[in-house]
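FAQ: What does the model actually see?

It sees only this:
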Amino acid sequence: MKHIIIGRAEEMKILEQLLKSDQPGLLAIYGRRRVGKTYLIKNYYAGHLKFTCSGECGSGLHTQLANFQQQLNTWFPASRQLQPPANWQQAFIMLRECLDTVKTKGKKVIFFDELPWLDTHKSGFLSAFGYFWNIYLSDRPDLLAVICGSAASWMIKKIVNNKGGLHNRITQRIRLLPFTLKETKDYLQYRNIRFSDYQVLQLYMVTGGIPHYLNAVKRGESLHQAINNTCFAPNGLLADEFQNLYAALFNNYEKHVHVIQTLAKKNKGLTRNELLVTGDLMTGGGLTAVLEELTESGFVEKTEPFDKKKKESLYRLVDEFSLFYLRFMRGNSKNDWLTISKTGKYIAWCGYAFENVCMKHIPQIKKALGISGISVAYCSWYRAGSKGTDGAQIDLLLDRSDNTIHICEIKFNIKQFVIDKRYSQLLQQKITAFRESIPPRKGLLLAFITTYGVADNEYKLQFVDNEIRMESLFEEV
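And it is asked to produce this:
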């Protein structure tokens, strides 16, 4: 049965174009676990699916082939196979024979879900699939093959950048991202859950807009009840999610978890060299590979410094749930969220989590600033302190192509943020330090991004050029 699809407007345009194409199609869709890839494909293509199969996590070749055979029997009962295929070459011959019996008009979709799990060690799956595409699928303009995986780095390396039979064969790819704030609000409202924007923002700071996580929120619960029941109850949906999340995505996932745990301790992020020094993680090459996989999968963001010195690039933990788990859930199953939310630790988490949310909503920030049509690079800036100078840090800079830079101050607060004398001095110090590091032709504007705005006073009048409130982050772009 087809269900309503919230958001995903751009993705659905691509899916529709592939349906209307008079050419054979090979779509690769990837994105982190629980983001809604399978839901999107199965529901949008509900009336066109002619075969689906999925890899099984941790299972060997024999089990994967047995599952494949069972799906053939389900989709093609008239061609029922009594024995599983001996190998993937035989499996795709069987699928080809079954597809040849389908006489319906229009585009027919075959869907291979969790492809990385199908490609078990020495199974020959990828080479067999590549041969299946080149010999059969590529000659069938009425067929669209969709391949899907949660291990984004694997999908990029093995599929998109494949050097073998699938080289340059992908006709379209989609990286499915978590919901935006607007999509999160729309999804909750579709389920008749009417949280305020402030509450939706807080929920987003816990779940990161992952649809499967949001689905655990029940109508009639307060925000605090929803977080308690989902994260801290013994049978809560997210109680064991962290342990399962990385294990399902990465080989030798302990290294990935180690990096995540190390990054969670530093709000500003760490350079690759700092990661090597901090915590005795691994060798340089091994760390580079892990960082690339975590970045491609959306757990970590690589932020280029303003002066573009590559070795100084910062890696930040931007996966909201991972940060929330490490700050509050790990070893704290008996905690009550209402009690936690009154602590200083909660206030510190809110500040960092809100920064991450803002960095994922750059298009909305550009729209609020009236610069949607201007090319913008966003980056960070940091100057270490010394005997003669104070240190300074800017978490978000918007470097515009018209020689203007927005210094963004991001403040999460339960009411209007007040710039007092002490904070104004820190602002002046930061602006002065940054001005010294940029060409004189560049203009500077100070933008405040806050939940409820900046209170009017002499310091706001002196410093604040642009003000963006929480509701602007919910805009559609």
